[in-house]
Design brief:
Layout (H helix, E strand, L loop, with lengths): L2 H6 L2 E12 L6 E12 L2 E6 L6 H8 L7 E6 L9 H11 E4 L11 H11 L4 H14 L15 H13 L5 E5 L7 H15 L5 E5 L11 E6 L2 E5 L1 H4 L7
Parallel strand pairs: 3-7, 3-8, 5-6, 6-7
Antiparallel strand pairs: 1-2, 1-4, 8-9
The chain binds adenosine-5'-diphosphate and magnesium ion.
The site of adenosine-5'-diphosphate has 12 residues, from β2 and α2.
C-alpha cells in the first residue's frame, strides 16, 4: 500500500503502550509489554509470532474479552475496557466476531443453529437466523452439513462452523485465532477468500492469527509479535519469494 492510499483509509483500531500482565508477585507474567499499533479499516491484518508471544492476549483485549493492564485502546472509537460490564458485553455482541482456537461449539445444536447463535441472541426469529447461518456455511463449502451435529463432523468442518458463527451478524471487527489450522489447503484458501470479502469494506477490519505460511500472502499487513511486543513490516518484506521467482 502506498503512503497516499494509506492516508485515505480511516484507522479502525489503535493501541498505544498497551500492557497486560497475568497474576501478581512471584507468578506475575508480562504477556504484553507495550503494544503500539494502528489497523486501517478495510484491511486484512495477519498476526504472527512464536507460541507464547502474546497473540491471543492481544486479540482478546482488542475484542473486549480481556482488559489491558495499562495503555490506550480505541476500537472504532471505543475502548471496551472503559465500558461497564453489561455495556461491554453488549458492545462485544454487536461489534465483534471471534473465532476461538478451540471452536467452542454447543454439542446439542446443529451446525446451522450453532452458527446462528449471535443472531438468536439479538432476537432474530429462529428460522430466519438458521437460514442466514446456512447461507454462510454454504459459502464455506458446508451446504450439505447444515443439519449435522458437531460430533458428526470433522475438525475442519467444526472450524468452519465457528467461522460462520463469527461472520453471521456482519461484525465490524472479525478476529480469528488460527482459522485454517484444521483445514486442507484448498479449504483454507476458500476460508481466506470469505474473510477477505468481510474485511474489504469501509468500517470493517479482519485480524487473523496464523502460523500458516501459505495464507500470509493474502494479508494487507502482517504484524509480527515477539515477547509481548509488535513489529510492523510491509508485506513485501515479510514474505519469502516463491520458488523460482
Ligand atoms: N490466563 C492466563 N494466566 C496466566 N498466564 C497466561 C494466561 N494466558 C496466557 N498466559 C501467558 O501469557 C503469555 C502470552 O500468552 P498468549 O497470549 O496465549 O500467547 P500466544 O497466543 O502468542 O501463544 C504466555 O507466557 C502465556 O503462558
Ligand atoms: Mg494463542
Amino acid at each position: 500500500m502506498t503512503a497516499a492510499s494509506a492516508s485515505l483509509r480511516s484507522v479502525a483500531i489503535r493501541c498505544e503502550a498497551v500492557t497486560k500482565h497475568y497474576g501478581s508477585g512471584e507468578t506475575r507474567i508480562a504477556a504484553l509489554r507495550g503494544v503500539d499499533l494502528a489497523i486501517d479499516e478495510g484491511c486484512m491484518t495477519m498476526l504472527v509470532g512464536p507460541s507464547g508471544c502474546g497473540k491471543t492476549t492481544l486479540i482478546s483485549i482488542l475484542s473486549g474479552i480481556l482488559s489491558q493492564s495499562s495503555g490506550e485502546l480505541s476500537v472504532f472509537g471505543t475502548d471496551p475496557s472503559r465500558l461497564p460490564d453489561g455495556d461491554r458485553a453488549e458492545w462485544r455482541a454487536a461489534t465483534v466476531g471471534f473465532v476461538f482456537q478451540q471452536f467452542n461449539l454447543l454439542p446439542t445444536l446443529t451446525a446451522a443453529e450453532n452458527a446462528a447463535v449471535p443472531l438468536l441472541i439479538r432476537g432474530t426469529p429462529w428460522p430466519d437466523a438458521v437460514e442466514i447461518a446456512c447461507g454462510h456455511l454454504s459459502e464455506l463449502g458446508m451446504a450439505e452439513r447444515c443439519g449435522s451435529l458437531p460430533r458428526e463432523l470433522s475438525g475442519g468442518q467444526q472450524q468452519r462452523i465457528a467461522i460462520a458463527r463469527a461472520l453471521v451478524h456482519d461484525p465490524r471487527l472479525l478476529v480469528c485465532d488460527e482459522p485454517t489450522s484444521a483445514l486442507d489447503h484448498e479449504t483454507g484458501e476458500r476460508v481466506i477468500d470469505v474473510l477477505r470479502a468481510a474485511a474489504l469494506r469501509s468500517g470493517r477490519a479482519v485480524i487473523v492469527v496464523t502460523h500458516d505460511q501459505r495464507i500470509l500472502r493474502h494479508a494487507d499487513t502482517i504484524l509480527r509479535m515477539d515477547d509481548g511486543r509488535i513489529i510492523v513490516e510491509p508485506v513485501s518484506d515479510a514474505i519469502p519469494p516463491a520458488h523460482g521467482a
